[in-house]
């Protein structure tokens, strides 16, 4: 009996976490991916969620600042109105109205 044994030479490239094997070399994972063979995309999801929440927070802060500015401007203009009304009321005569004499000039 003739026993033929063929050996198949298989070369494995073992890469650390955060790297993947390409052409028998270890290459760093693209941004947002990690783990063995770059299969874990939780960092990418975290970056996307953080950007969305940061944008929402920025919009809310700007809306609050605009609201505060608008309400303060309205208070200032209404206080100017009340000051003008007070001045007009205090400058009116308190007694009964009298007709002022009218002078006619004839030529």
From TrEMBL:
Say where the protein is mainly found: membrane
Q: Which gene encodes it?
A: LOC113074301
Q: What is this protein called?
A: Mucin-13-like
Q: Which domain of life is it from?
A: Eukaryota
Instruction: Identify the taxonomic lineage of the organism of origin.
Output: Eukaryota, Metazoa, Chordata, Craniata, Vertebrata
Q: Which PANTHER family match?
A: FLOCCULATION PROTEIN FLO11 ISOFORM X1-RELATED, HEART DEVELOPMENT PROTEIN WITH EGF-LIKE DOMAINS 1
What organism does the record attribute this protein to?
Carassius auratus (Goldfish)
Please provide the record's keywords in A-Z order.
Answer: Cell membrane, Disulfide bond, EGF-like domain, Glycoprotein, Membrane, Repeat, Signal, Transmembrane, Transmembrane helix
- Write down any Gene Ontology CC term: plasma membrane
Where do the TM regions start and end?
A: 44-70
What is the annotated signal peptide range for this record?
1-21
